[in-house]
Amino acid sequence: MISFEAAPAGLPAGRRVYAVGDVHGCLEKLAGLHALIAEDLVARPIAEPELVHLGDLVDRGPDSAGVVELLSARSPVPGLPTVNLMGNHELLMLSALSAKDDGPAELWMENGGGATLASWNVPHGAVVAAWPRHIPVRHLLFLRDLAITHQVGPYFFVHAGVRPGVALALQTRMDLLWIREPFLSFAGDLGAVVVHGHTPRSRPEVRSNRIGIDTGAVMGGVLTCAVLEGDKVGFLRV
Fold this sequence. Notes:
Largest sheet: 6 strands, mixed
Shape: globular
Number of strands: 11
Distance between the termini: 14 Å
Oligomer: single chain
CATH architecture: 4-Layer Sandwich
């Protein structure tokens, strides 16, 4: 049973969005969360449900390759339309794999890229130029084609957040994937209610202008899914 509370915005009748926070290679938690979503849909069917993953699918955790395989091969919850967004860690990975020098690869390694390479069985000590050969092309294409933002009614879904005072259509990719401040402390109108991950907290944050759902799944916390419907928000956790 999901415990709901008042949401900062409302969706039309018949619509529901399940939004999943930062996965970071935690395949077992993601599969468990998808199972809870499927159970909720059976118990509470609705006309127009949708699933959104908010990015940072890879890095740090044990099975980034398994997460990408799951999300690239099919809809993880049968019959549920799914949107997958890019996070800063997917950007780090893609930059490292396509760079002409070792700088982006070193930055990626400092941010959990080693665990990601291991999940694709890239041999330890392999030169940077050889890394892409060990990753299936369809996995690379999936990562390259991830959306940056997604909007449903009054909710704007993005990995990190937005820059206050800048129209949503004019936000830079750097801010959308990386920003923390001044976004997190801003209390005014952002142009929509922003649903985001990127900044881990011990529990979801529901503010008048944003909902943060990175709850540190890879750092001993839980993986969180916000359930948005009507004028309510609830949470599923694994």
